[in-house]
Specification:
alpha+beta; Rossmann fold; 15 helices; 13 strands
């Protein structure tokens, strides 16, 4: 696309100026504040409603000496472009809206309006924008018209994205095929991307490293567990235990013979039988209590379950009731009444309009009244049309208001009825809970009474207890008349042998634990070696993945940079930890665009970028080079129109060359 003509009228500080490059490269000279940048702003506003920096909020109006905008002017920009071998004329007119309010002698400024034209035909703003989008989107327009936009205003991620779009791309398989040392990655990347595999490797290495840090601690803890404990011969302790068990069996047999001989043995037998009888009575007593309380406890459990269900029902119904009490019907009557009042006021205002030949602005539409014989008739027709429109809209709003009023009444009644039903449910459930609570209290008392019945009340229990006591007295009398020295000696021997067996068993257990502990230490040492080897393999894989990333980055940069004549792009930067971080830095001869590059080199770098992007997008735009005086030789832009804005102190007015 080429600019053929650009006409500004009352735009910013320019009263009227026509630029006619006719599609050719031109230079525009002027001192500071003569309007060079205004030309760029005008073309940007004509196309996208923004200034050349992309700001939508900027002052278009011409300012007076007092710094206030001059009123009553129409601010227009018209551009004629050659696009696809056809001329297209775009025009925008920004003007103030003045209206006569009822009872006011003078018109009042009430806002602005912007008219849009394509090839002289008035169109809606949306249609206007669609026609421009057919040529190029706003972002592409800015990329292709401003040498500084790509490197200075576009975020680095968007710069990177744009470059990757114009590059054929470099696949992982291509990088691996070009570097034999990366061949091992072919199998590794069969099911994952390099980024995914790197995450897996790093996560695995982190997990292994954490485990490796714990293994020496665990080995140290295990080594200290039996520190200072002398080695134990487990087989020897087993032999000691077996010998002591054999001796103990012989002693126990002799004690049994001595303890059950004669009268004493018979009494002990009777005692055992009597104690068993007492125990049987106690068991029967407990069983009778359990059977007596069983039915009551089942009933109590049912009451508890019933109360839980009722409590849950009560909680839910109360929650529903509270929500229902807070519910309010949707009521838009206030907003509708405000609209109705506004239409009434407007109706009375329009009704009061009167025709006056001296008034050149139509009160009905705010436009200039054409010079014609039927001007008054036309005014009355427009006034009647507007009154009819207001009445129609007012009736619609009144119908909506009445419908809302009926709906609000119905909703209010529904909410009240539903709230009453929920309140009744709450009262009913609370009464049921109170009744169940009373029943549960009675049942709990009955269970406690049943369980508190003493065993002494059970038939035959006291007699059985007395029988046990009588036998014990008889045993005591029998023992008092016998020599128990042998029994006491055998008892002491039994205790000694029990101690020998116990100590032997403890040492056997200790020996087993010491053996298991040694095996655990050996297993931890083996695990440490295995995990160290595994981490080493993962490190090798990580190194290969990093090498793949670096070589791919280098190939990607090379693929992109060969599309440009002078600029080179750095798409990755090295981090302190050795990793690569994505970026997008523009450089010229190794000098970063953002620091150290002079203004002339920046302009040519921007032109180089525009040239490649224009080829990629398949469209060219007029390139506006601001501050062009800072460079003596522009980069050749074959097939692309270049408009130079040159600061020249000797040119006090805009001069085109």
């Amino acid at each position: 696309m080429r600019l053929l003509r650009l006409t500004l009228t009352n735009f910013k500080g320019i009263k009227h100026f026509t630029l006619e490059p006719n599609g050719d490269d031109i230079s525009i000279y002027g001192d500071n504040a003569t309007g060079k940048t205004t030309l760029a702003d005008a073309m940007s506003w004509l196309l996208f409603g923004k200034d050349s920096r992309g700001n939508a909020q900027f002052e278009i109006k011409t300012m007076g000496p007092d710094g206030e905008a001059l009123h009553g002017l129409e601010h227009t920009v018209e551009g004629v472009f050659d696009y696809d071998f056809k001329n297209i004329t775009l025009k925008k007119a920004y003007k103030e809206v003045w209206t006569n309010k009822r009872g006011a002698a003078e018109r009042t400024w009430t806002g602005h309006t912007t008219d849009h034209f394509v090839n002289g035909v008035p169109v809606r703003e949306k249609e206007y924008q669609e026609r421009i989008k057919e040529i190029a989107a706003e972002e592409i327009f800015r990329l292709l018209t401003s040498p500084s936009y790509f490197a200075e205003q576009l975020h680095w991620t968007d710069r990177r994205k744009a470059l990757l779009e114009i590059c054929e791309g470099v696949t992982d398989q291509e990088v691996i095929a070009a570097h034999a040392e990366l061949a091992a990655l072919t199998a590794v990347l069969a099911d994952h991307t390099p980024e995914e595999r790197m995450k897996i490797v790093k996560a695995s290495m982190k997990e292994i490293s954490e485990k490796l840090q714990q293994i020496p601690v665990r080995i140290d803890e295990a080594s200290k567990r039996f520190a200072g404990v002398s080695p134990i011969d487990q087989g020897e302790q087993v032999d000691i235990a077996k010998k002591a068990q054999a001796e103990l069996a012989a002693v126990q047999e002799r004690i049994a013979v001595a303890g059950t001989a004669g009268e004493l043995g018979e009494l002990k037998k009777q005692l055992a039988e009597a104690e068993a009888a007492v125990l049987d009575i106690e068991n029967k007593h407990r069983q009778s209590i359990a059977e007596a309380a069983k039915d009551k406890e089942s009933a109590l459990q049912r009451l508890s379950d019933q109360m839980f269900v009722l409590s849950e029902q009560l909680r839910k119904v109360k929650a529903d009731y509270e929500l229902k009490c807070q519910e309010r019907p949707t009521d838009n009557r206030k907003q509708l009444q405000t609209e109705i009042d506004r239409f009434k006021a407007e109706y009375y205002e329009v009704y009061a309009w009167t025709y006056s030949p001296e008034n050149k602005i139509c009160q009905a539409c705010g436009q200039a009244i054409p010079e014609a014989d039927n001007a008054e008739e036309e005014f009355n027709k427009r006034r009647a049309t507007r009154l009819e429109e207001i009445q129609t809209e007012g009736k619609k709003l009144k119908a909506q208001y009445d419908a809302f009023e009926e709906t609000v009444k119905a909703e209010t009644k529904r909410i009240a009825d539903e709230s009453a039903v929920l309140a009744e449910q709450v009262a009913k459930i609370e009464a049921e809970i109170d009744e169940a609570e009373a029943q549960r209290a009675d049942m709990t008392k009955a269970i406690a009474a049943a369980r508190s019945r003493p065993v002494n009340d059970y038939p035959g229990y006291l007699d059985a207890v007395e029988h046990v006591a009588a036998i014990k007295r008889s045993i005591a009398d029998a023992r008092a008349g016998k020599d128990s020295a042998e029994i006491e000696r055998l008892g002491r021997e039994k205790d000694r042998l029990d101690g020998v067996i116990s100590r032997a068993r403890e040492r056997i257990a200790t020996a087993k634990m010491m053996k298991e502990n040694d095996e655990r230490i050996a297993a931890l040492a083996d695990e440490e070696k295995r995990m160290a080897l595994e981490r080493g393999e993962l490190q090798k894989e990580k190194d290969l993945l990093e090498a793949l990333e670096r070589k791919k980055a280098a190939m990607l940069e090379e693929s992109i940079n060969k599309k440009f004549q002078m600029v080179r792009f750095r798409l990755f930067k090295d981090l302190v930890n050795g990793a690569l971080d994505p970026c997008c830095e523009v450089t010229v001869d190794g000098v970063p665009y953002s620091s150290g590059l002079n203004n002339g080199a920046r302009i040519n770098a921007g032109l180089d970028i525009i040239r490649t992007l224009a080829e990629h997008y398949g469209v060219s735009m007029p390139v506006i080079v601001d501050n062009a005086e800072s460079i003596t030789q522009l980069l050749p832009m074959e097939g692309i129109q270049v408009i130079r804005l040159v600061v020249s102190p000797e040119h006090k007015e805009l001069t085109v060359n």
